[in-house]
Design a protein that fits this description.
Strand content: 35-45%
Largest sheet: 8 strands, antiparallel
Order of helices and strands: EEEEEEEEEE
Oligomer: single chain
Number of strands: 10
Helix content: under 10%
Strand order of the largest sheet: 2-1-5-9-8-7-6-10
Radius of gyration: 15 Å
Number of helices: 0
C-alpha cells in the first residue's frame, strides 16, 4: 500500500503531519511515519484513536495559503452523501458530507464542503464530537 499523507489533530490541540499505510477506521490504533519511503531510521509512531480529534487525509502538507477555503456549502452543491454539520468538543464547527454516520462507531468520514479543499476527506473521531446534525 502506498503511503498516505495525513495531518493529525489531537484532542489536546497538537497537530502532527506524516504518512500512514495501516489506517483502518475500525481499529483503535494505527502507525505514523515521518518518511514516506519508510527508511530504516524512520521509526513508526503508534497512534491511539482515543487521543485524536480527527485524521485529515490531505493533498499536500503545505496546502495553499492564498486559497480561501469555503467552510459551508454553496447553492447548488451536490455532495456525495448527506450534508452535515459537526461541532467538536473544543468548539470547532465543520460542515461537510458523509455517507455513513453512526455515533456508536469509533468515527466516520467527512468530505469537505469545498471540493477544492486541500483535505480529501476527514476521519472524525466520534468521541471528539459534541454535536452532530444533518443540514
Amino acid at each position: 500500500m502506498e503511503p498516505i499523507k495525513i495531518v493529525l489533530r489531537y484532542l489536546d490541540g497538537r497537530i502532527v503531519k506524516g504518512y500512514t499505510q495501516d489506517f483502518n477506521p475500525g481499529r483503535s490504533s494505527f502507525h505514523l511515519h515521518k518518511d514516506p519511503a519508510g527508511s530504516s531510521s524512520d521509526q513508526p509512531i503508534q497512534l491511539e484513536m482515543k487521543e485524536l480529534k480527527a485524521v485529515f487525509f490531505v493533498k499536500t502538507f503545505e496546502g495553499n495559503p492564498s486559497y480561501n477555503e469555503r467552510k459551508e456549502f454553496a447553492e447548488g452543491d451536490r455532495p456525495q452523501g448527506r450534508k452535515v454539520e459537526v461541532t467538536f468538543v473544543d468548539g470547532e464547527l465543520m460542515q461537510g458530507s458523509t455517507v455513513g454516520y453512526d455515533p456508536q462507531r469509533p468515527g466516520f468520514f467527512l468530505f469537505p464542503a469545498d471540493p477544492d479543499s486541500n483535505n480529501i476527506r476527514i476521519f472524525v473521531v466520534s468521541a471528539a464530537v459534541k454535536d452532530f446534525r444533518y443540514l
